[in-house]
Amino acid sequence: MRRNRAINNYSILPAIIGSLAGGMVSTFSTAAQAEDIFGNSGIQFDVDTIVEFEFIESNGAFQSSFGVINLDTGEKTPLLVEVKPSDAAQDPNRPSDFIDDTDTSRQNDFRGTPGNAVPQPLAEFEFKAKTRYSFYLESTYKGKPAGILYSTDFQNLNRRQQTLFEGGMSGLSQGGTAIRWDDTGIVKTLEERDFDDFIVRLGGHLECPYQSQTPCKPCYKLKEGSSNPVVPAPSNPSRL
Ligand SMILES: [Ca+2]
Ligand SMILES: [Ca+2]
Ligand SMILES: [Ca+2]
Ligand SMILES: [Ca+2]
Questions:
Q1: CA spacing 20 to 30 A to 94: which of 41, 49, 215, 232?
Q2: What are the pLDDT digits (tens) for 44-91?
Q3: Distance (Å) from CA 150 to ligand 4 centroid
Q4: DSSP character for 92?
Q5: Rounded alpha-carbon distances, angstroms, from residue 190 to 85, 93, 119
Q6: Phi, psi of 218 (to 5 degrees)
Q7: Nearest to 163 by CA among 107, 118, 202
Q8: Cβ 125 vs Cβ 135: under 8 Å
Q9: Is the pLDDT of residue 166 over 90?
């Protein structure tokens, strides 16, 4: 099998060389790179791409669902869902702590953990090529809608940034990327910009599960035995 593949590769070499001579390869690769978008400006992959997701923790009073929305069709796919506002019931009227509670095990900011508030902490989604997506966080409070926020800034009221992407596109294949959400809070005047309200890890290393297909379909898988601690935000956004 290996020998056959090598022969096939050699057989297409003349075609590649021919394209190079005509300047086709450099033009194509520039166009392809321009279409990969991953961050606060949007989500779009150049080819069909699978991404694995892991719920890390939440620290927010809302009961929230994280998912992907196709911006062309409006179709929403929930991926990681809180079945209650936090692991333990907590009084939402107490004053906020206004600090980042990531990876502290502190219970006083409505802590939710995998297997408890989020019973199914793993998910995957296949992004279709050349299609615009955004991540979303949709919340309820005491059973009533509390709004939906987007990872793409311009979709939010006043184009407000509600997510931090830590690791970005390169993190998907090099250890994982974290998305940290800040929701709008229950009382706007006491809004806590701590970016720890819902935290998700994406990817970790790149695999192509469908080797027989051409082109290979990229899959950003979670690292084996994942749940590496998420590094707290570099500065305390609530003080900005
Ligand atoms: Ca919550
Ligand atoms: Ca907090
Ligand atoms: Ca918050
Ligand atoms: Ca919080």
A1: 232
A2: 999 999 999 999 999 999 999 999 999 999 999 999 999 999 999 988
A3: 17
A4: T
A5: 19, 11, 30
A6: -65, 145
A7: 202
A8: no
A9: yes
The rounded Cα 22 to chain-centroid distance in angstroms is 39
Q: How many CB atoms lie within 10 A of CB 238?
A: 18
Nearest ligand to the C-alpha atom of residue 66: 1
Q: Could you tell me the distance, in angstroms and rounded to a whole number, from the CA of residue 178 to the centre of ligand 1? A: 17
Q: State which residues have CB under 5 angstroms from ligand 1, the bound ion.
A: 58, 60, 85, 112
| Distance of alpha carbon 25 from alpha carbon 13, whole angstroms | 13
> What confidence category does residue 229 fall into, taking pLDDT thresholds of 50, 70 and 90?
very low
At residue 65, the 3 state secondary structure works out as strand
| Res 212: pLDDT | 62
Tell me the pLDDT of the chain averaged across its residues. 81
> How sure is the predictor about 138, in pLDDT bands with cuts at 50, 70 and 90?
very high
How close are the terminal C-alpha atoms of the chain, in Å? Answer: 59
pLDDT top residue among 180 and 92: 180
Separation between Cα atoms, residue 191 and residue 172, nearest integer Å? 31
- How far, in Å, from the CA of 60 to the mean position of ligand 3? 6
